Amino acid sequence: MYQDKIIIIDVQGFYSANKFIPKEVCISSYDSQIKNFIIQLPFKYLKLMAKNRTTNNWLYNHFHDLRWDDGDSTLNVKEYLKPSIKNTQNLTVYVKGLEKLKWVKTLIGEEICIPNLDDFNCSNIDTLYKTDTNTNLCNYHCCKYRCALKNVILLRNYVKFNLKNKENIENVVSSRVFENLLKAYDCCIDKDHRTFFLKMIDELRIYNNLSCSPLISSSIYGIHRHDS
Q1: What is the pLDDT of residues 183-218, one digit of tens each?
Q2: Which of 16, 21, 109, 179 has its CA at a distance of 20 to 30 angstroms from the CA of residue 99?
Q3: 5-162, which class in CATH?
Q4: Which of 77, 76, 72 is nearest to 95 (CA)?
Q5: Left if phi > 0, otherwise alpha if psi is -120 to 50, otherwise beta: which for 137?
Q6: What's 69's DSSP letter?
Q7: Distance between the two ends of the chain, CA-based, in angstroms?
Q8: Which runs of E-coded beta strand occur in the chain?
Q9: 113, β-bridge pairs
Q10: pLDDT of 87 over the 50 cut
Q11: How far is 215 from 35, CA to CA, in rounded Å?
Q12: What is the rounded distance in angstroms from the CA atom of residue 220 to the CA atom of residue 100?
């Protein structure tokens, strides 16, 4: 089944020399299997530059409540994910947020499908937290802080109830391509290029029946109708 090929990942962390360092990593399959790790970082807090300490202190006090020295896991996330990538065809790894998307790509490469749930009109994490009062946080967090474990559970529920099959994903991807084509069309000055993009837009819309997609706004279609 398609659901067996889905992984959801969330991460909380720190920064050193403008590089993201994962501290809490949570990985879930489509079913109930969840692994949550609080990672032991490779060097002491005092070795951080002053500006990084300021940033990380803010993250600790106002965002995820994780101390630099918390945890005892020596997990190598890249090595941990290798069996899933090697043994699974058509794997889809969901994340939420551009920065987390970039981080996951550094682990598993560009060839794996890694949708950003922000592109699926998924509510922001604050809203998801407010609408869910039952999901537990991990042992390191209290209710006001961001927890990768709770994030993954909420995001997995979103995927289950809103992205139940591959067709839904393909429709969203096609919608994004459609919007990008329209942006390119708007930037065209000469008539030949505008005609070329209009032809591509028409073919994509007909092929994917995008006129029925709720992800395409009427204002976008207004641009096309005006030129047809």
Answers
A1: 555 565 566 655 665 665 565 555 455 443 433 333
A2: 179
A3: alpha beta
A4: 77
A5: beta
A6: T
A7: 42
A8: 6-16, 19-29, 34-38, 92-94
A9: 92
A10: yes
A11: 33
A12: 29
Q: What does each C-alpha distance from 131 to 90, 118, 124, 128, 162 come to in angstroms? A: 32, 18, 11, 5, 16
Q: Pick 87 or 39 by higher pLDDT.
A: 39
| Rounded mean pLDDT, 82-100 | 83
Q: Which residues pair with 120 in a beta bridge?
A: none
Residue 11 to residues 41, 144, 147, Cα–Cα distance (Å): 14, 17, 8
Residue 218 tokens read as: 């009427």
3-state secondary structure of 15: strand
Q: Where are the domains of the chain?
A: 5-162, 168-212
104 in Cβ contact with 110 (< 8 Å): no
pLDDT band at 171 (very low <50, low <70, confident <90, very high): low
Distance (Å) of CA 43 to CA 32, 58, 89, 211 = 34, 19, 37, 54
User: Is the whole model's pTM more than 0.85, yes or no?
Assistant: no
